[in-house]
Design brief:
Length: about 500
């Protein structure tokens, strides 16, 4: 059986320009690697084909002739996913389409009851490695779709939903596919090759704006370190890649395991390896010895969920008072040469323009290196969404295409959604100004940061200041907003 797995092309520039970071979708690559060997499987990340989607998919379907097509989609990518599924069905109606990922897991009932259901034959909810393989067996007559946990399937055109699957035994999951069956290449972090590595799944923290628990439940599971190292060997030696993003939801929940993983990496003596990962402030603040070991192993950037400088807003987010922990965590990272990417959230119910500015200033105060700024988003099935709905503060309850952290889908008690959108942009422009790469980043990427600082930045800044005098902040905001609106608009999918 020919199996094609696709990830969506939608991207968002919450850290840096949307073309600066393109990384592979690890989920579909891992599913591909765990299918029975008799299947011919291909994987394509459409983020690498954004400018020629219809042409690329038409050629791919003609040449490969898939029997089954899997599509992985986040909630904010689902509108594009539906268009692509429509295109695929028009090009190859005999192929079975399977929807998976976060949106299918959270919103399977709503999808099944909507007109969009006609473009999908199956949905896989939760982890897909076993369910997808069993589905292929069922299509070959070797299994029964009604007996596959986590699968939704159709009878007489209507979806039936099997019970949720138990979390998988990660020791039984093979590493992701990274060979020639991955059809798209050119993955990068700024100017360097980039790959994604997974060492664990899940998080036990109680952040109520996060939908993670709907994928795995509130738990933490780890892959065997031997499996992780085998995959890292492939990335380093076969793929010749030095920048690796660890996609773990919160790797530091098991401190002892992090130490063991770091020891295994150090023992490999990888030269020039640079790792980035996300972690919580509390653990990083209270385990300096772990941070030191991570630095020795090659960790260069840690994403910390700082979120907000307001204790009231942190309490609403289910984070608790982590302000002191955030400051200590950043000190620990800097002490050992690790840059901090600080996640910041704006637009809590009591925020006004001054509160937005204060949160940007808080980022500067704590000395983090790179901001990851998002507007509070009422993601489906989260506790935060319910709170905001009850308070009448959700301005865009169903336009999920804008649920990517960049758009204001909520209002506050002091600002409309449009005012929040403007202040989120304006205060960042005025407080942060033109980005100056931190010293640690200039050291790691001296060539491209020097080009930015001494060539691109002066040219762009001069043009920007001239335009500011002509059209003002409001005019610049309109231009920025128009760019955001066009970013994930794919003209060749307009008819679908």
């Amino acid at each position: 059986m020919h199996v094609l797995l696709l990830s969506m092309p939608d991207i968002t520039p919450v850290i840096i320009h949307e073309e600066a970071v393109h990384l592979p979708n690890l989920g579909i690559a891992t599913i591909a690697a765990n299918l029975d060997p008799e299947h011919e499987v291909r994987v394509a990340d459409l983020v690498r084909k954004r400018r020629c989607l219809k042409k690329y998919l038409s050629r791919l379907l003609r040449d490969f002739q898939p029997d089954v097509i899997g599509l992985s989609s986040m909630t904010w990518q689902f509108e594009t996913c539906v268009r692509i599924a429509h295109l695929l069905k028009s090009l190859r109606p005999q192929a079975k389409t399977v929807l998976g990922g976060y949106h299918a897991t959270l919103m399977f009932a709503e999808i099944a009851a909507s007109p969009d259901a006609r473009w999908f034959d199956f949905m896989v909810r939760g982890e897909g490695e076993i369910a997808m393989n069993r589905l292929l067996r069922a299509l070959d007559g070797q299994d029964d779709v009604a007996r596959i946990p986590g699968l939704s399937y159709k009878i007489a055109g209507l979806f039936r939903h099997n019970p949720r699957a138990e979390n998988l035994d990660l020791a039984a999951i093979r590493p992701p596919l990274r060979d020639q069956r991955r059809l798209t290449w050119g993955y990068h972090i700024i100017a360097q090759r980039g790959e994604v590595l997974e060492t664990s799944r899940g998080c036990t923290r109680g952040c109520n704006f996060c939908c993670m628990r709907h994928m795995y439940g509130r738990c933490f599971r780890a892959f065997p370190i031997e499996r992780v190292m085998a995959d890292l060997d492939v990335i380093y030696h076969e793929r010749k890649t030095r920048w690796v993003f660890l996609s773990d939801d919160n790797i530091v929940l098991n401190v002892q395991r992090v130490m063991q993983l770091c020891e295994a990496i150090i023992a490999r003596r990888y030269k020039g390896l640079m790792l980035s990962v996300q972690a919580d402030c509390l653990t990083i603040a209270s385990h300096e010895e772990m941070v030191a070991k991570m630095a020795e192993a090659g960790f260069r950037i840690i994403f910390l969920g700082v979120e907000n400088g307001s204790k009231r807003n942190l309490a609403q987010a289910g984070k608790g008072d982590i302000v002191a922990a955030a400051k200590q965590a950043i000190r620990n990272c800097h002490k050992y040469g690790i840059m901090v990417l600080a996640g910041m959230i704006f637009g809590f119910p009591d925020d006004d323009a001054a509160a937005i500015r204060e949160n940007y200033e808080f980022f500067l105060e704590i000395g983090a290196d790179i901001p990851y700024c998002q507007i509070l988003t009422p993601y489906p099935k989260t506790g935060m969404r319910q709170q905001l709905m009850d308070a009448g503060l959700v301005a865009n309850p169903e336009g999920y295409k804008r649920y990517n952290g960049l758009w204001a889908n909520v209002r506050t008690r002091h600002m409309s959604a449009d005012e929040l959108q403007f202040q989120f942009w304006l205060q960042r422009e005025q407080v942060f100004g033109w980005w100056n790469p931190p010293a640690l980043l200039r050291k790691e990427g001296w060539l491209w940061t020097s080009f930015w600082r001494f060539v691109m930045k002066p040219l762009l800044k001069r043009s920007y200041e001239k335009k500011l005098k002509t059209i003002g902040w409001e005019g610049l905001f309109r231009e920025a907003r128009a760019h955001w609106q066009s970013m994930n608009h794919f003209s060749d999918l307009e008819d679908y």
